[in-house]
Amino acid sequence: MALALQTTGLEKRFGGIVAVNDVALAVEKGARHALIGPNGAGKTTVINLLTGVLRPSAGRILLEGTDITGLEAHRRVRLGIARTFQINQLFADLTPIETIGLAVSERLGSGKEWWRLVGSKGEVVDEIVEILARFHLTDVMHERTGTLPYGKQRLLEIALAIACRPRVLLLDEPAAGVPEAERHDILDSVAALPADVTVLLIEHDMDLVFSFADRISVLVNGALFVEGPPEEVARDPRVKAVYLGEHVDA
Questions:
Q1: In sequence order, which residues have a C-beta less than 8 Å from that of residue 153 and are 6 or more positions away?
Q2: CA distance linking residue 75 with residue 52, whole number of Å
Q3: What sign for the dihedral angle of Cα 141, 145, 151, 156?
Q4: Residue 50: what pLDDT?
Q5: What is the pTM of this model?
Q6: What are the C-alpha distances in Å from 180 to residues 42, 139, 146, 151, 244?
Q7: Residue 244 pLDDT more than 70?
Q8: Considering the chain, what percentage of its residues have pLDDT values greater than 70?
Q9: How far apart are CA 77 and CA 166, in angstroms?
Q10: Would you put residue 228 in left (φ > 0), alpha (ψ -120 to 50) or beta?
């Protein structure tokens, strides 16, 4: 089993609060892996640890076998980890074509003069348009991001992550807050992500989780509670009890 992302003994404490407790996560290369759990389970904290936004109190993080525990967030991006956020982290005054153009140019080492690279390289323009088309954004590519419908903004954030050409993509609730009328574009885009990109998804929408994931990890009170294929997790009475708020013995 070749692993794209792995944690051992991962822990995060905020004073006396243990937000992540001895988490051993193994995400296979090319997997569609979902991390689910009740509100406050520690899911986003795990993502923040994996991406370098937070430093762990204990434990290790490995990217394809290389220890990245001490690396800064920007260095992890260059090694192939990209993410989206629960709340969009976009440039409101840029258009989608400018946003993706900036990301592609930055990846190619010309971020400071991205407009020149875009204007002089046909293959760069082709890549930008292809990404925008893949995420249903060509019809709004010249509009200010801040004026776009929320569903389009969520799609742009995923497109921005893909423009970095990640080996591992971490999606933090991509469908959260998206109106039902726009939700199908999110579902289609997540399903159509490149097969060679390993995806770790956090999501409360169980329809999305079970239609997408080939493996599910359930986090409760900062610790891994249940893990396995979707059909096993769906049948597990302990998981049902956690989501129904009932008491179960560990």
A1: 88, 90, 145
A2: 9
A3: positive
A4: 97
A5: 0.85
A6: 27, 20, 20, 9, 24
A7: no
A8: 90
A9: 8
A10: left
For residue 14, the Cα-to-chain-centroid distance in whole angstroms is 23
Neighbours of 244 (CB within 10 A): 8
Radius of gyration of the chain measured on its C-alpha atoms: 19
Per-residue pLDDT reduced to its tens digit, 186-231: 888 888 888 899 999 998 888 888 888 999 999 999 999 999 999 9
From residue 12, alpha-carbon distances to 8, 9, 39, 53, 163 in Å are 12, 10, 17, 12, 30
Question: According to the 3-state scheme, what is the secondary structure of the chain?
Answer: CCEEEEEEEEEEEECCEEEEEEECCEEECCCEEEEECCCCCCHHHHHHHHHCCCCCCEEEEEECCEECCCCCHHHHHHHCEEECCCCCCCCCCCCHHHHHHHHHHHHCCCHHHHHHHHHHCHHHHHHHHHHHHHCCCHHHCCCCHHHCCHHHHHHHHHHHHHHCCCCEEEEECCCCCCCHHHHHHHHHHHHCCCCCCEEEEECCCHHHHHHHCCEEEEEECCEEEEEECHHHHHHCHHHHHHHHCCCCCC
Q: How far is residue 244's CA from residue 247's CA, in Å, rounded to a whole number?
A: 9
More confident residue, 156 or 164: 156
Residue 49 has pLDDT above 90, yes or no: yes
Q: What is the pLDDT of residue 108?
A: 75
